[in-house]
Specification:
This protein is α+β, with helices and mostly antiparallel strands and 306 residues long. It has helices at 16-31, 36-66, 73-85, 95-114, 123-132, 158-173, 178-185, 207-213, 247-276, 285-288; strands at residues 5-9, 12-15, 138-139, 142-151, 196-201, 225-227, 230-240, 243-244, 280-282. The protein has two domains: 5-120 and 250-288, Triger factor/SurA peptide-binding fold, CATH 1.10.4030.10; 141-241, Chitinase A, domain 3. It starts with a strand and ends in an 18-residue tail after the last helix.
Length: 306
Amino acid sequence: MEERIVAVVNSDLIMLSELKRELAPERERLKKHYQGRELARRIKMAESMVLTTMIERKIQLQEAKARGVDVSDQEVKQTIKQMKQQGEKIDDIDPWTLKNVRDQLTLLRLVDREVRSGVMVVDSDMRRYYQEHRDRFALPEEYTLSQILLERRSSDDAAASKAKAGEIFAMLKRGETFEDLALRYSEGLNASRGGALGLVRQGELLPAIERAIADLAPGGISDPIDAPEGIHIVRVDEKQPKQFRPYEAVKTEIQGLVFQQKSEDVFQAWLANLKNKSYIEVKFEPAATGQPTGGLSPPSSPMKKE
């Protein structure tokens, strides 16, 4: 492979061999899913994204050096030990791996000092977040249900099952009790209890059943519902509407979410400022068609699996 410079970042160079090495895992992943022109197009896109990431990392490492941010050999060894304990396969004698871990720890320390240390979360921020994202803190609707199930044994008896379900539904409309019909006809495990399913939460039911009962009031009975395991006729016995967890109960959770959001915003502004003050020259065709754009988030710990 011909070695050449792909980017100049202030006084540092990024070489083609470095780009290819960082790109290798994504290239292999793409080769499993694409081929021909589409593969070539996606690899070019990946090259641009990887080079952008490398440039932004280089700028941050230069800033770390200028500010005296340092990571000891012992910290690198301890981090690698913890990564291994978490089940990660890592070569602790490979110089490139050691450099990556050291760089990641350096970036964490830099961003903690320059970005996260200045992020403040006040109560008004948290209350605004709570109001704007209330559904995130909602408890799902709860239903107490009963059902009559006609199981699907083969495609041959589908028509007969539908006809039988229609007859049962007609009996219900004539006033026969749901429990009696469940005892007589249901093939579900709960038939002996008059079809009682008990308490279920929104999201635990088959989508077809959830749609069918969404607008039913307590006591309401669905039309026959065709589902993979058979035909269901469902009665809503009780319905507990969606409730929202009170602010005080989720305050700590919201604090973490708002801090993360604010940290991301401050990080992107901080990184943009570093880039604006830097000399960046891209000498690589795919990336040269457009200036590298900020695509990083504050670095996460190499010990933490995202």
